[in-house]
Structures are given as structure tokens and as C-alpha cells.
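Ticket #365: bound-state structure for beta-D-glucopyranose.
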Amino acid sequence: MKKILLSSFCLSLILTAGIYGNGQNEGMLDIGLAMPETHVERWQNDGASLVEEATAKGYKAEVAFGDADQSKQNQQIQDFITKGAKLLVIGSVNEGVGSVVSDAAREGIEVIAYDRLIVNSADYDYYITFDNFKVGQFQGKGIVEGLKLDSATQTKYITLFAGSPTDNNANFFFDGAMSVLKPYIESGVLKVVGPAPMSSMDKSNFTKIATENWRADVAKARMENLLNNDAKDVVLDAVLAPNDTLARAIIEACMTDAKYDSTEKLPVVTGQDGEVASVKYIRDGKQYMTVFKDTRQLAKAAILLADAIIKDQTPNIPGARMDTTSYNTGKKVVKSFLLEPIMVTKDNYKKVFIDSGYYSADELQ
Ligand code: BGC
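RESOLUTION: The complex was predicted; output attached.
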């Protein structure tokens, strides 16, 4: 075993040193997997599952994480191209990835946009994701249920947060949530404190509630600011938070304010991803809900799609709904495959996370 390790180590040194000359790196890689960041936990799981699925199908695969830095991610993708990748699976940082997607297209390399649509590009054909509008609808539903809005006799107060302004998914999450909340806002049962876009199309207000690069510190600072200003004279009943990382940052900010400094006093806070710390918060009653998007399932589906594309076969992805009309990059409509998200509250977290083997009971201790 040692000998094998040593010889493959030497071989990779030789190849990296370019002793075989230009172009000889080709064939080192079949599938390049570019993930946007690691500060949101899910992407590490996505990366690991994608490598596992691709390797199980006999492909040479490599994953790289872009640290929310588009020029870094573009460099990583260029490296995959240099290594001879036949196909790229890209969870993009932002639309700046378009230039390397064009380079890939020129070389005949197929690209699958993974989880996030690559906007403003006409240079790829496939997109695989979860039904992101539904993710938002579940968040809206969580607020309606958590605040018992259908039987509420007094006005409830909510403040709104959205994801990264450069992530197309952030629009879908927000619009899905608002499709559920808008009637309650219009009837006056629910009142928005702070900026109040009714849709992601209202860019001037949406920008005010968006969270640059999905950063927890940005959301925490904005929440602290809200508590001291717009929300100074009210008690917030709910916060629309687009994912678990931001939900916990918002909860942390609330806990420093005497109005919300115990579990019972916290507002109803939504989330998404099923991060382990948030599942514990849900169990303990600190976070109201999350939306689970099984990264194992998405990775498996993406590699099934990749395999079909590489072999020039018709993709058959169990559990995915094909949509050939809704996802327009701004330059073309891409063939999309949508998986089903799951709404999770205290009532079903055990069934969803432990029974499915996503987390062990120990991990949730
Ligand atoms: C993903 C979410 C994730 C967020 C931040 C979105 O594009 O769909 O699952 O929480 O990015 O990484």
C-alpha cells in the first residue's frame, strides 16, 4: 500500500511539474466539481457526496471550494479544464463564473449548474437543484403556523432577511415566502418592521434586506441595528431568515437584547439546510423550522445527469421533476431538474434527520 501511495505521489509530482510538456495533463480528470464556499456547512457535504458518487461510477473526480471568491473559483475551474475534464459541475459564487463557462463551452466541455443557476450565460444546457420557490413557501408556511396567523386577533410583527443579492436562489426563496405571507401583510394581521419589499423584483428594498455572500456577521450586524432602530419600539414575533447559518446569527443578535433573551421570548425564526446546530436549536425551541434539502440526493442526481450527458444518453433522474420552461439565465432557458425539499419543525426533525441516517442520534446530542 505504501509503495502504491509513493508511486502515485511521484507521478502526480511529475505531472504537476509539467515534465511531459504542454497538454499532457489531459486525461487526469473526468469531472471537475466546483463548490462555492465552506462557511455554509452544506457545501462540504455536497462536495464529499459528489466525489463519492462520481468515483463510484468510475470517474476521476476532484472537488474545489471557492471560499465565496469568484476569481478564486474561476481559477479552480480553469485548472479543471487544463486537467482535461470532460464535464464540470458548478455551484457558482456568482455570475462572474460566466467567463470560464464560456471557455469550457469553447473546448466542448459540458457544464451542469449545481443548486445555483448561472445567470447571464448562454454557454451551458443543464441545471439541477431543489424546488427553491417551494423552499421559500415552506418558510412562509412556518411563519403562518408558528404565529398562528389564521386565528390571530392582534397584529404580529415580522422583519425580513434575504440571501446573497448575487445568488439567484435568494430571489426564489424570498418570492416563495412572500407568496405565502403577502395576503397576511395585506390584511394587516402581519406587519413588516424595517424595509418591506413584497418581491425580489423591488430591487431597491430587496438590496436592503439581502445578505452579502450569505455571511453570518453581516446578518448579525443588520439584526443588531434593526433592534436598536426600526424595531426599537416593538416586540418582533418573527424573522424571515433564508438559511440556517443566518438564522443562528439572527438568534444570537436577539439573545443580546433583553426583550428576547430567553428561548420563550425569541421570535419565530425560519431557516434552511438542516445544519446540525440548527437542528439542535429546533429541538430546543430556539429556531422554529428549517427546510431540508438532502445534499446526498442532489449529488447523486447530479452525477446521474453527468453520466447520461457524458454517455450521450437520455437522463433518467428518479425523484426529480424536469422543467424545460421556467429557468431562464437571461440568455437562454436551461433544462432543469428539480428535487423536492422537506419542511422540518420540532414535530418531524427526528424522522427527517435521524431515521434517514443523515445525522446519527449522537451527532444531535
Ligand atoms: C443554497 C442554500 C445555501 C445558500 C448559502 C444557496 O444557493 O441553495 O442551500 O444555504 O446558498 O450557501
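RESOLUTION NOTES: Residues 1-22 have pLDDT under 50 and may be disordered.
TICKET STATUS: resolved
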